[in-house]
Amino acid sequence: MPKRAATSSSLAGITPSELNQVFDEATRRAVALVRRGHPNVIGVMVHGSVARGEPGPFSDIDLVAVTRRGRKPSEFSYFDGDIYVGVGFLRVAELEREFSDPEMFFWARGSATATRVLYDPKGTLKRILVGWRQAKPSLKILEKSLWDDYHNIIEYSGKLRNGWRNRDEYMTRYAAQVIAQHVERAIIALNNISIISENYVWHQVLKAKKRPSHLGIDYPIARGMSATEISKIYRSTMRLCSETLRLIRKGVREKAKHKRFQALLAEPLERHGL
Q: Which of 70, 100, 134 is the last residue of a domain?
């Protein structure tokens, strides 16, 4: 097991340059540990704040080790001193498959811009990451992503209204949070945003060009970021539903290819209280 690094208290008191050095040393030890234990690994990369060169004193290290074929090792984690290290494993095919996954595309492309390759003797990871950074979402990915969000916003608007009608505060708040998540995803897809990190996603969403008119007010409330009374959560989330559904319809109605999605987009929202 790697030797202990600095303690939490000392990490909180050192300069950003020193902090980067401590995390870089822990990262090098992690890569060496992975390579010793798993000689079939063809590449290792790090995501997150460490890859961006901006770790905080309580950041963790997110390593991804890539294998070519065969049985994929189980992920594991450990403490190097007070730095938490997580190691996940992906096959090359799984990494490449994310190009066609509507749920992963915008996150994976954004992650590729903020990923540091640590071990890549044959250039496999570099090739994949370059492809990711230049990738554009296909119409199929956009349609599948926005269809899923459109559907879930409608479905959870019903749960929101039932929760409000039955004075069920838990259901009202839960439905509002789920709706906000799908609003977020829809805005990401409509604006072709590359998600850099979960730490920044809501700032990227709030600055998007194509967004609901009252997003700056309603999104934080629905997300639960702004403590407020349940009646305000209900009203803000319903308005967020209405504005986002119309934004999706405007953005994809002429492009949608699937007949069932076309039919759903053509359905008058006003008829359903939206």
A: 134
Cα 228 from chain centroid (whole Å) = 26
Name the residue among 48, 68, 66, 64 with its Cα closest to residue 56.
48
* 134: CB partners within 8 A, 6+ apart: none
Whether pLDDT at 5 is above 70: no
Per DSSP (E only), the strands in 106-162 are 116-119
Q: Is position 147 within any domain?
A: yes
The strand pair at 83-91 and 116-119 is best described as unpaired
259's CB contacts (< 8 A; 6+ apart) are none
Name the range with the highest mean pLDDT among 46-50, 134-138, 161-165, 255-259: 161-165
CATH at residue 13? 3.30.460.10
CA dihedral 65, 60, 194, 99 (to 10 degrees): 20
Beta-sheet pairing, 83-91 with 60-67: parallel
pLDDT band for 131, please (50, 70, 90 cuts).
Answer: confident
Joined together, the tokens standing for residue 74 give: 């189980």
Residue at a domain's end among 92, 112, 134: 134
Residue at 3 is within a domain: no
Q: pLDDT digits over 19-74, tens only?
A: 999 999 999 999 999 999 999 999 999 988 899 898 999 999 999 999 987 788 99
Please tell me the distance from the alpha carbon of residue 55 to that of residue 87, in angstroms, as a whole number: 17
Q: Can you tell me the distance from the alpha carbon of 237 to that of 202, in angstroms, rounded to the nearest whole number? A: 16
Total-model pTM: 0.82
